[in-house]
Every structure is written in structure tokens, then in C-alpha cells.
Design a protein that fits this description.
This protein has 340 residues and is α/β, with parallel strands linked by helices. It is built from nine helices and 14 strands.
Length: 340
């Protein structure tokens, strides 16, 4: 039972923070948002007024110096994730940082030592991994209902051509693979409960911005494979199919399921060919589930619900896909500094 609400500070006024994460924390029973910061005090104060946050700061440093803040959520551009996560950890704060945790596995690995040294939790905001529907799908796979898992096919796209959007800036870690390729990669690793042994990928780069706007890849696991396509310049669409030797699981809106309504899995297990079952899950706010579990770990003195090592492993796959797109060959995800 939670007897203490974790006091949160928010580093930045990104849309996902204002529209998703802050309201989810405020609606939960485990946390409260006590401060928000921006490089513009006006922006921070405006956000604080709209969301009824007690304190607004005109710099991230000021928020980190706030002794009342116990945990910070970081929704900054990708290239700032690790630097500000480190500064927050060293300031004695627990850290929930937006995905992708870094722009490379080597950068992400630096967080492991800092977290250990400071004794604070750091976690990638992979909210999908704690959604009841994702957990339910993995339990169905584990149960053997669809036979042995062999293949996963996933798609995620949206349309954005804004030249001022940070996703179109290579220096800020832009591009579709880092932005949304994260999702099908983490799904595949989550369902196979293993790391891919090799990957091959292809990227189409937007000549105006110099970042990938269309990415496709194959992830080969020891006992199957996953394929996906993601794009920042296609019609909005999300879908996942999980196939085993005897059945399949279909998941619509797998990444950003609206929290106002129940979600479902369509399961066909071979017992009744052509007559799939629907497995439904009660409506839930996946950003709220994420923050509640993180707060519970802080209060209980337990490890982060999703270990930082998992985020590093995910980045190794992304790195390998980038290498493959350049080499035209299969690439092996591996530690940035192999053991001697």
C-alpha cells in the first residue's frame, strides 16, 4: 500500500508531457507533480498554470536543485536524454526518461554505472511494456495456445513534414527509426523473450532533412523472426500480428491505445479454425500504469520495473539496423565495447 506520494518534477514542456504523462501522474494515487521546468520561464509558468503545478522554473538546473523533487520525467529531444538523466541522477533524483533512452547503445550504457553509483532508479519510458494487453499477449504466447512463436509482423506510421520538428534534425537524434522503430523492436524482444541474433534493415532518407523517413527491418531470433516497417511520412497506421505454429494473435492500435476504452486481442488458436476469440482488457491509462509502478518501486526500495539494461539492449538492435542500412548486410547486435 502506498503511504507516500512520489514528488515529481518535469524537465521540459513537450506535448507528451503536457497531454499524456503529467495528467496520468496527477490522476494516479502514487505520485504528484510539484514542479516543471523549461528553458523559457514563460512556457514553464504557462504549463504550470494550465496543469495546476505548484512551481515553475526557467531552467532545468533550478528544478534539479529543488530538494522536494524526488523523481524527474524527461521528455526532452533524444540527444538530451542521457546528459540530463545523468545530471538528474547525480542530483539525487530518480529518472523516468522518454524513449529512446539514447541515440546509441554506447551512450545508453553510461547510465548503468551512474545509476549504480548514485543509488537512484533510471528507466526508459517504455509504457507499452507494462500495458495489461501486452502482458496478456505474452502470457498467451507462453501458454502455448498458438503453438511455438515463429513470426511477428508490425507496422507503425504517421505523417509529419514540419521542418521545425525536432524529429527532422539529425543533430537531435531525429528520424523514424529512433522515434517509433523503438516500438516494434521492443515488442519483438518482449514476445520472444530473447535478443535477435542478427538483423538486416533498409532506410529511406529524406533529402531535405537528412533523417530516415521510412525504415524496414528483419530481426532474426533463434527460433523465429520479426519484421517491421515504420515511417514518419505515411498515412497513420498501427498494427501487430503474432504468429505461432498453431495460431495467431492480432493487436490493433498496439502502441498508443486510447485509455478511455477497453482494448482487445484477437486470438485464433486452431481449435476453431476461422473462428477467432476476442480477449478484452479493461480501459487503462498506460502512462498512469507506468508511473504508478515506477513510484511503487521507489517507495519500496525495489529495482525499476523495466531495468535500464533492457533499454541498452534495445539500442543495440537499433544500432545494428543503422549499420545494416549502410553495409547492406546482416549485422549482429553487440555491446559497444566487447569484453576482452
Amino acid at each position: 500500500m502506498i503511504v507516500h506520494k512520489t514528488r515529481w518534477g518535469i524537465l521540459g514542456v513537450a506535448k507528451i508531457a503536457l497531454e499524456k504523462v503529467i495528467p496520468a501522474i496527477q490522476a494516479g494515487a502514487t505520485g504528484e507533480v510539484v514542479a516543471i521546468a523549461s528553458r523559457s520561464l514563460v512556457k514553464a509558468q504557462t504549463a504550470a498554470d494550465c496543469l495546476h503545478i505548484p512551481r515553475a522554473y526557467g531552467s532545468y538546473e533550478e528544478l534539479l536543485a529543488d530538494a522536494e523533487v524526488e523523481a524527474v520525467y524527461i521528455p526532452l529531444p533524444n540527444h538530451l536524454h542521457v546528459p540530463w538523466s545523468i545530471r538528474a541522477l547525480e542530483a539525487g533524483k530518480h529518472v523516468l526518461c522518454e524513449k529512446p533512452i539514447a541515440t546509441s547503445a554506447a551512450e545508453a550504457e553510461t547510465l548503468i554505472a551512474v545509476a549504480a553509483r548514485t543509488g537512484r532508479l533510471v528507466q526508459e519510458a517504455a509504457m507499452v511494456r507494462t500495458h495489461p494487453r501486452w502482458l496478456g499477449a505474452r502470457e498467451i504466447v507462453r501458454s502455448g495456445r498458438i503453438g511455438e512463436l515463429r513470426s511477428i509482423a508490425a507496422f507503425f506510421s504517421y505523417f509529419n513534414e514540419s521542418p521545425t520538428n525536432v524529429r527532422h534534425d539529425p543533430a537531435m537524434g531525429g528520424g523514424g527509426l529512433l522515434d517509433i522503430g523503438f516500438y516494434p523492436i521492443t515488442l519483438a524482444r518482449f514476445m520472444f523473450e530473447a535478443e535477435p541474433v542478427r538483423v538486416i534493415g533498409t532506410l529511406e532518407v529524406d533529402p531535405r532533412f537528412g533523417v530516415d523517413r521510412l525504415a524496414s527491418a528483419i530481426l532474426e531470433f533463434a527460433h523465429g523472426h520479426a519484421i517491421f516497417t515504420c515511417s514518419m511520412q505515411l498515412a497513420p497506421y498501427q498494427n501487430v500480428d503474432i504468429l505461432g505454429t498453431r495460431g495467431r494473435i492480432a493487436m490493433d492500435i498496439p502502441w498508443s491505445m486510447p485509455h478511455e476504452r477497453a482494448s482487445r486481442l484477437v486470438v485464433e488458436d486452431g481449435a476453431r479454425p476461422g473462428q477467432p476469440d476476442e480477449v478484452t482488457f479493461a480501459a487503462c491509462n498506460q502512462w498512469g500504469v507506468q508511473s504508478d509502478l515506477f513510484c511503487e518501486a521507489i517507495v519500496a526500495g525495489k529495482p525499476a520495473p523495466i531495468p535500464i539494461e533492457d533499454a541498452v539492449a534495445n539500442m543495440r538492435v537499433i544500432d545494428a539496423i543503422f549499420r545494416s542500412a549502410k553495409s547492406g548486410r546482416w549485422e549482429i547486435p553487440m555491446p559497444s565495447t566487447p569484453a576482452s
